[in-house]
Amino acid sequence: MTRSLVGVGVLLLLCVAIMPYWRSATQAHRRRLDQLDVRLHVNGIRGKSTVTRLLAGVLREGGYVTVAKTTGSAARVIAPNGHETPIARRGAATINEQIDVVAEHVQRDVEALVIECMAVRPLYQQYSQEFMVRSDITVITNVREDHQEEMGETLEEIADSLSATIPTGGILVTGEGRQHLRDRLAVNAARRGSTLMYADPAEVTDEDMRGFDYLQFRDNVAIGLTVARLLDIPREVAIRGMWKSVPDVGVVRLRTYDILGKRILWVPLFAANDRESVILTFQNLQAQFPPDAPVIGILNNRHDRGRRAELFSHMVPDDLDEFLDHVITFGAYEETVTATMVERGYGRERIHQLGETVQPSLDQILQTIVDLVPGRDGVLVGMVNIHTDQAELLIEHFAHLLGDAQDDEIAEARLLARAPLGRQRIVSGISHTRRAEALRA
């Protein structure tokens, strides 16, 4: 009994000793948040990291001294000059990381914070909003089926869970396209005294989309434009800032290669494996394809992904017929996939087998591609899976053509062309002064 009392006493003493530190740390965190002119909390199911980066680009170009933090494929802190720093973790990621980022990076001159929500469970999301971020504007990118074990089985339940990050007396911006889900978010926002604003992708032009050298979605760009409008940042400034933003690690880069005298735009779309994502991606990509260029899809089928091969053999005639002029089959299941596509109405003359039934050389693959391009420009889209002998031949060839220009997001973030306009002027001014001094010497 005595030992138990001693243990309780020690615990109470520890709590008493820790309380002043906890109170001090809490007050310091709140002071850092209160100094900010803009606090943006980015939540949703898809596109959070991308939208965080786009919004940070909008704010930087709009003149705000901005710090951003994204989780994404690799956690990053993005400084006011656009430079990125990886976040080093000793163990598993926790939402307390957000407090550390604010403490370390929100200095006295910082005016805006854009931070991606790390929490999944509604209770943690609420804690993130009400204590860690206290945003004026919250973004819910969209509502999709994911994390059902924590957020609910239905889309409506997931919308309610995401609503835990809606500010009190603030603004909710969403790119969710379905009216009934927007209505639900609007009701949840009204309960907190907030207003919902819909970021309509119809406001994004083809010209806006051509400024991105990687796969981007109109919904994401529309969110950037909506937030810019709220902050009185001119549209052209916002678009320029989004174009400059460095994409997340692992995005689909759009690169054009010379293949036997033809200019082929290569779109490695292997990671999009569900029907909704693939269709949306093609809808968004159309604006970035060269006019009148034939689009050739590669169905890259693995032996251990039979269900996926079946899915795409239905999708090509049912959903992608208007997007794909030709299809090349790689890997396994060629005869079955071809028969299914033809049976469902996709012309046999548009299907070209170059997989295991043929075992082609790289030269045969390249020659087939250029033969399907009557003019100078063509588009080649890789789909379904990434690893087959034929796909690896093609990917290695493109990597060889790319040479030393491999993607390095950290280095890319330090390019002057990616910097906000004010930073470019400062650096250019310094460079001009140094050149003048050198000439005088």
Automatic annotation (TrEMBL):
Residues 44-161 form the Mur ligase central domain. Pfam families: Mur_ligase_M. PANTHER family: PGA SYNTHASE CAPB, UDP-N-ACETYLMURAMATE--L-ALANINE LIGASE-RELATED. This is Poly-gamma-glutamate synthase PgsB. It comes from Arsenicicoccus bolidensis. The gene is pgsB.
